[in-house]
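Board notes (copied after class):
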Amino acid sequence: MKVTGFSPLIITDSSDADNMIKLFEDLGFEQRHKHIQLDGRDINDVTMRDAGGHCFDIASVPVKPLDSVIIRMNVDDFEEAYEMLTARGFVCGSNSVIETPSSKSALMISPTGFKFDLCQHIRKKAKI
């Protein structure tokens, strides 16, 4: 398993996500990817990137948590990374893996409370 990306993920409530996205757009970031209604739930995610290649995600959730930042860790083999983390005591925070046509992800929580958003991007196969 290889880590292919490591970036911040800001989690906020749905009512503030647009304001937060606008703030980062004003700072020079652009929306690159957007996922709506992840896993059929009111969870939305926007990946933002600036001209220097710096990126992060803003995820909006339907509850009012305090804004928090966790680490998004992209890997090339989700299952291997998931097994490695669970062997070290991590648990899946939502008790489910979220799968979309372009990604597979899970919130992984360490025994001390540290959190990763474990994610594998699923690349489209080239047409021959």
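Comment from the instructor: The radius of gyration is 15 Å. The first helix runs from residue 17 to 26.
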